[in-house]
Design a protein that fits this description.
Distance between the termini: 42 Å
Strand order of the largest sheet: 13-12-9-10-11-14-15
Order of helices and strands: EHEEHEHHHHEEEHEEEEHEEHHEHHEH
CATH class of the largest domain: Alpha Beta
Largest sheet: 7 strands, mixed
Shape: globular
Number of helices: 13
CATH superfamily of the largest domain: ATP-grasp fold, B domain
Number of domains: 3
CATH topology of the largest domain: D-amino Acid Aminotransferase, Chain A, domain 1
Number of strands: 15
Radius of gyration: 20 Å
Length: 368
């Protein structure tokens, strides 16, 4: 293929997953990297070129200057909400020269990064959502809510665990609302969750056609976040997939995406958000037979969805960085069980025999 592939985002395991997915498929991506000049993507053997930039704006300037006059339209793939937001802000200026994740109109993805907007959209398609209250910063009154509750910024780009709180009292809620630096904040009834599920896929043709080969079901979950130990299960054309497809079609989205759900003790599924970018679990799909980055690129060029011919089912996968930190937590009893699970897992985020240097760099960091 003659189209260049650019991977633009923060130097995280998510970006490393895109780079490895592309490298395994035979591409030589060009990486435009924020926030770190060492480790992870810098240690991977797959990039053709690695360019460090001081901020996202300079990264986009570099991309436009160097690649906007290519004979074959380059792709920009991203793992980062901030970059998805930036590309959406500049959609009109770059859409003719680059393939980017988009919703067909400048500013539309940024509108949809408002979790309350997504909640209303999901409910209109028959998906359950946690009971929700919207708090606006200028308001003097805190709404009457059901406690305990989960508090987070309405905007995805203001995310991060440091901006998420579980509150058991109104005193804790008041403190959380004053801490979060967001114009709008979501307060949601805390779901007594059993697990979490994430569907990842891609869409082309203004969202008219999608492919969602797997769902990730978490075998361990944190109170405020996904765990790092999960099983990949093949999807079927059921009511849930049909509703997800209808949402993507209504948005008119093109690109990689993921949709997240909480599952309570009674197996009720609650929609939480859509990520308009590559998902951190997508690299596991490669082991199962569905290389989403490759399939998205080839499907976009051919203007037709390409699906995997054969998928493995029930693959056990591990994000060893997150899982080691959150599961073991210094408990020596857990370390032996965790090591057994690590060595028996079918896929890992960091450990990869084809591209081993990022894993050893990570080990060096935690040991030293």
């Amino acid at each position: 293929m003659q189209n260049k592939i650019l991977v633009f985002g923060a130097n995280t395991y998510n970006m490393l997953g895109i780079v490895r997915s592309l490298g395994i498929a035979g591409y030589k991506p060009i990486c435009v990297i924020l926030n770190s000049k060492s480790g992870l993507v810098y240690d991977s053997k797959y990039p053709q070129k690695k360019v460090f930039v001081e901020n996202k704006e300079k990264g986009l300037e570099y991309i436009i200057e160097k690649f906007s006059t290519e004979n074959h339209k380059p792709f920009i793939l991203t793992n980062d909400d901030q970059i998805s937001s930036l590309l959406d802000e500049n959609y009109d200026n770059i859409k003719d020269n680059f393939y980017i994740f988009n919703a067909g109109k400048q500013g539309k993805i940024n509108q949809l990064m408002d979790k309350d907007v997504l909640r209303i959209l999901a409910e209109s398609h028959g998906l359950k959502t946690p009971k929700t209250w919207l708090y606006v910063k200028c308001s003097k009154d805190i709404p009457k809510v059901t406690l305990p509750c989960f508090v987070k910024p309405a905007k995805s780009i203001i995310g991060g665990k440091q901006n998420q709180f579980i509150c058991n009292t109104y005193e804790e809620l008041n403190k959380a609302l004053s801490t979060i630096e967001s114009e709008k904040t979501l307060i949601q009834e805390l779901v007594d969750k059993k697990t979490e599920i994430c569907y990842s896929g891609y869409a082309i043709n203004k969202g008219q056609t999608t492919y969602i080969p797997y769902k990730s079901k978490y075998l361990r979950v944190g109170v405020k976040s996904f765990g790092g130990y999960l099983v990949l299960q093949k999807t079927e054309e059921d009511k849930m997939i049909c509703k997800i497809n209808d949402i993507i079609r209504e948005i008119g989205y093109e690109g990689l995406f993921s949709i997240e759900f909480l599952v309570d003790k009674n197996n009720n599924k609650y929609f939480t958000e859509i990520n308009f970018r590559n998902d951190g679990t997508a690299f596991h799909y490669v082991k199962g037979g569905a290389n989403l980055s490759d399939l998205y690129v080839r499907s976009t060029i051919g203007n037709k969805i390409i699906q995997s011919n054969s998928l493995k089912n029930n693959l056990v996968c591990m994000n060893e960085m997150n899982d080691l930190i959150h599961y073991v937590k210094g408990d020596k009893k857990n370390i032996f069980r965790w090591l057994w699970q690590f060595f028996t897992a079918d896929s890992h985020i960091l450990y990869n025999r084809r591209d081993i240097k990022p894993f050893f760099s990570f080990l060096k960091q935690i040991i030293l």
